[in-house]
Design goal:
Helices cover about 25% and strands about 30% of the residues. It contains 9 helices and 19 strands.
Amino acid sequence: MNTKKLVSAILCVLSVASLFSGCQATPDTAVVVGKNDGVFESALNSSAEPVEGANTETFSYTNTFTSTDGKIEFNINDNSIEYSGNPMPVLRVTPHSITPEEAKTVYTALFGDTPAYEYTEELTKSEIEEEILYYQQISDYDYIVEETEKEYEGSTISEAEKEEIIQLRLESRLESLAMYEEMYETADDEIEIQECQWTFYPWSHYEPAFADNENLNQTKWIKATLEYNDLPFAFSVTNREAEDYRVQIIWANVNDSESAPVMLEEKLETIESTLYSKEEPTQEQADNVKQLALDYIEKMDIGEWEITECLGLYEEYFDGYYFRLTATPVYYGIPVTNLPQLSAITGQEEYDSNYYYEEIIFEFSPDGEFRYFNYNGALDVVEVPNESVAVMSFDEMTERIETQLSLDDIGMYQLFGDDPNAPAELTTDKVVMDITDMEFGFARTKVKDERFDFYLVPSVTLSGSYTAYNSGGEEIYTYPENGRSDVVLVLNLVDGTAINYAQ
């Protein structure tokens, strides 16, 4: 079953939501990518003149129509669409290779003059001893029984199934205990900590077990650790320029994976008190962290960006709230639309994208304490094929939107795909789609016959939500939940094709 990845709203507002995973499948809009062969290329060779004195107008777009199979009702209702219809540029971009100097600049923007040290998996005797004591405690059979009984209290699993879980946990923990006991025999009392060299090394430099994996070792790393605000942090830079796929990422996070059981015992209270709030975040706090993120970005010297999403999220483990922000770059005064990040980049089909979308994600406590950073998919503008390409008029655009959406069919919204044995009460017979937002900006699409070159093209992105009903008229599910809206369609405003943003 193909699924549409309706993930994140493009609203820069405070939205407090629980962190949980759903089981909801999502549909895949029929796409018409590349069907107008030659139209886009022709448009790049001809420039349009802006209408002198023309200003951006505010349009109202309200309409109801159905899909060609009559099963999907689309309700478009946006009364504040600002659109000029004036020519826009098209940019050709390619992955930017992060340099050690750029990595260090980002590090300094985040952590100032805090020393960074080379990452190592080597542990001292005393560190290994702590791990041994920990695994001795949790490998006790009675301890695991009590742990499992508490975890599955009220569950319908049988005693036999419960005992199987206990034995699997016991076996796994005893293996870890044996591993640490073996490591202890040859461990050093002290390990010389080396300052970060700001040098890219093959994957196996940090994980020697992968020394013979040639493909994996095409990925180069800078990995460092540091202590910041009394908390352990990890900082890493990924650089992969292979022919199958490419990766350029700078990442920093509170390092809760470093000797996790010991670290959590020592730092749990600091993490909870520093990075989380028991009270729901306020709009004022949201505005403050948005400005804080922009201040960080300015110090990084990575161009102009804008905050496109700011969410107040709840972390159940720490019983507290924090902020997650998304930023997208601005080129030639035009923002790149915030689209759901690609879930995979290793596909080798013609329209598969082998490079992540360019975005920055920050996380802060409600009081503005830094906790997470991720800069993914850096790009270089290598050419401006056309500084003034004609885009569709408002009427042409709305007509194309309705033509494209009408290609959806009810089979794309089934929880069980085309399974003939699917229960009738969970079989979708009707969908009502409410589209409430249209955003204009650049969207990325592949250059024909090029693996790693892309166009940033003028586009409109429609967002909304939908409700599925069975043949009895009963509601099956709504997606997304909690009143949010997610991407429904991304349309190229130059040639009218749908951009397959999820691939």
